[in-house]
Every structure is written in structure tokens, then in C-alpha cells.
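Notebook B, p. 112. Complex prediction, attempt 2.
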Amino acid sequence: NAGVTQTPKFRVLKTGQSMTLLCAQDMNHEYMYWYRQDPGMGLRLIHYSVGEGTTAKGEVPDGYNVSRLKKQNFLLGLESAAPSQTSVYFCASSYSHGNSYNEQFFGPGTRLTVL
Amino acid sequence: GEDVEQSLFLSVREGDSSVINCTYTDSSSTYLYWYKQEPGAGLQLLTYIFSNMDMKQDQRLTVLLNKKDKHLSLRIADTQTGDSAIYFCAETTGGFKTIFGAGTRLFVKA
């Protein structure tokens, strides 16, 4: 199993450009998440999905959109990139255990720089 | 509101014990976790504790939970240079959403 994979690993954008980050998981997990990691701030949840065809806003959703057309894929889009979106982006997935136990499996991250 | 706080840095000598502390605010937290992030990688679950437990031991790792003070700690015995990483405290209050702390960067000096 590859686990959780993310593409690309690195990207540099100019202000106003758009891009899509792709996350894929092969563990048949229902839940998927997009986080951003900034120094001293830990992980902040951008958007999440509880199943195919569903998405919901997290803590910092502004400037981002997501889609989950297939259960194994979760896409994060930036329509008009801003320097404030320079960050490391992590995708994660988890399995529904029917209780609140929620081990999340993380991808290796995408380092995005917006100039 | 929900919040998880931890100190940002810890430095220890190789062979000593490391203790990383965390406080959380939601008394209804059911599971608390420690994740490890090595350089250039994503987070990986290190250990977890259920809220009805006070302590959990797993080889060199000891997790202590004080529910009254909402305090969680991770002790790493005989710390090695390979333990150098960022350690994140996290809590699940219900359902599937997890709140992460800012992470404690552990430096191990040889």
C-alpha cells in the first residue's frame, strides 16, 4: 500500500495564479482532510470530507476550494494564490471506527511558495 | 473553545529522558494522541491514550494523563538522536475532527 500520496511535492506560484493539489489514498478511508502547517501555529484544518461527494469547511477555508468526486481522491484548489498562502500543505485520511478514535494518516506534504 | 497548547522547543542530551508537555481545554476529549513529524515528512501516530486511563507505557514511551488539570505528557526514556523531531499533541473531542497543538521541536545533543 502506498498510503497517502500528494502531488506535487513543491510548487512556486506567482500572485494570482491558480493551482490544484492532489491527494490520493489507497486505504479505503471515509474521511479526508487538508491542513496547512505554518511555523509556530501547528496544523490548521482547511477543509475536510466525510465521504465521496461531500466536503465541509474547516478552520481556515477562505481562498481554497475542494472536491471529492472519488472516495480515494481529495483535491485542494487555489483559484487566485496570495503570498499568505505560502505554507506546507498536508493531506490526511482516517477510518471511521464508529467511536471518536481517529488516527489520521498523513501524506508527505506539498511545499507551496507564492511570490 | 477547543485549544491545545505545548511548548515549542526542548533540548536534551543523548541518553537522558525527554518530557514533552501539553495542555488541552476540552474536558470532553475522549482520545488524546502524540504524533511525530520527522524532517520533510508528514505526521505519524506515535501513541494515544483513552480518557479513562491515567498512564500508558509502550517500550521507551510513557504517556501520562491528568484529566483534572487537562494535562498530557510524553516521556521518552533513553532519548536517542533519532528521536529528534517535532512532536504534536492532539485531541479528538467527538466524531472525527482532531485538534492539533503547535508542536514541540525536540533537539537531542550527542
